[in-house]
């Protein structure tokens, strides 16, 4: 796009050819996000190709030190290494960075934002705003309104995480390995550490040899405490990769400081932003990846008393959310929409 629309921000997308990059563009379109000019940035192998944006062809440029001159908002989804190198360059050039990687999430000077929870933290940014981990977002959007009314002191999560969390190549591997499996053909995994078709395995991040927790689990624990601003909350989590394309699910059990009933939880969540209750016991219909895919809201169901806690302080539920949308691109665009206009001057 050669012509810049007056007063509308110049937006750069770093990692535009990835799964989240594509969702950035689709989400901006769907939400009517104002863009004066789009800069599409990727690696050298994609430079010169084009993407479609609002009826025009945008030429992809190689990400480099000069990419952010004149940019107002830079959306990053290119991995932690790229973010650590280029986000400070973008900030120095005058851009506000919304980064989807884990590079800056635990930096005390960087706001870690889920707009439904802590949008006010955006104004504290010093150039970089971090998008939380997708598994954390999926859990915390419905847990926050409960936590506000009856503090959650302990949280146990088991995740069922989709291929999209590992990128477009992992999604393709799931499709191709499933196709091969159905034909009775061998398919040695290239992206994932284990066969993906009709299989599930420990989340494909490094295991801490001392704790036995993988990196994804550690992220969820630390990010929950930072976003909730509660270092005392006890979090236990098991993160698992499942053969689903793009929506994460989680089984959640939480213990509150005071007694809580399933009816109270339903009442709280029925008006909670970003939440949709899908909880039909009669029809045995609850949140599923097939329904959550392409949806903005976190779906919540299986809301029931935790029978292992006779004190009545604990509730179990099941949630599903689109990893590429609320887990990544949508959350980032929601942040960008709230970046004060003076920060883009």
The gist of it:
With 345 residues, the protein is of the alpha/beta class. The protein has helices at residues 19-31, 80-92, 115-118, 134-149, 168-182, 215-228, 262-270, 289-292, 325-338, and strands at residues 10-14, 37-42, 50-53, 56-62, 73-76, 96-99, 128-130, 152-161, 201-202, 234-241, 247-256, 275-277, 298-305, 314-322.
Structure description:
It is globular and about 60 Å long. By secondary structure, it is an alpha/beta fold. The protein has nine helices and 14 strands. The N terminus and C terminus are likely disordered.
Walk me through the topology.
Layout: E1 10-14, H1 19-31, E2 37-42, E3 50-53, E4 56-62, E5 73-76, H2 80-92, E6 96-99, H3 115-118, E7 128-130, H4 134-149, E8 152-161, H5 168-182, E9 201-202, H6 215-228, E10 234-241, E11 247-256, H7 262-270, E12 275-277, H8 289-292, E13 298-305, E14 314-322, H9 325-338
Parallel strand pairs: 1-2, 1-5, 2-4, 5-6, 6-7, 8-10, 12-13
Antiparallel strand pairs: 3-4, 8-11, 9-10, 11-14, 13-14
C-alpha termini separation: 20 Å
What is the radius of gyration computed over CA atoms, rounded to a whole number of angstroms? 20 Å
Average pLDDT rating: 95
**Tally of extended strands?**
14
Low-confidence stretches: 1-5, 341-345
Shape: globular
Query: Strand order, biggest sheet?
Result: 3-4-2-1-5-6-7
Strand portion, in percent? 15-25%
Determine the fraction of residues in helical runs and give it as a percent range: 25-40%
Structural class: alpha/beta
Number of helical regions: 9
The main pleated sheet reads as: 7 strands, mixed
String of helices and strands: EHEEEEHEHEHEHEHEEHEHEEH
